Amino acid sequence: RSSTKMEPTDNGDLPVTINCNLAALRLLHKSVTEAYKNWPGGDPNEQVELEILRDGLFCVLMDTLLLNDLV
Asked: E strands within 9-50?
């Protein structure tokens, strides 16, 4: 009899690509910003990751607006 034990892994560095429209990008940025502002505490790395995600989404949003002459 054999058993397989699943080990938890951290795939935080696994690259992922998301395609969305401008409205969805704005909503993602707004949602992450709110999650960062209202972070209830806990693992401090989560707050750091929210900050990084918020800042990255802001950069993508600004790039998109600039490239499409929307600012």
From this structure: none
Taking only the tens place, the pLDDT of each residue in 36-71 is 999 999 999 999 999 999 999 999 999 999 999 998
Burial of 3 (0-12, 13-18, 19+ CB in 10 A): exposed
Look at residues 3, 4, 65 and name the one whose alpha carbon lies nearest to residue 29: 65
- Cβ 29 vs Cβ 61: under 8 Å: yes
Provide the 3-class DSSP secondary structure of residue 49: helix
Contact in structure between 36 and 54 (CB atoms under 8 Å): yes
Asked if 68 and 60 count as a contact pair (C-beta separation under 8 A), the reply is no
What pLDDT is recorded for position 62?
97
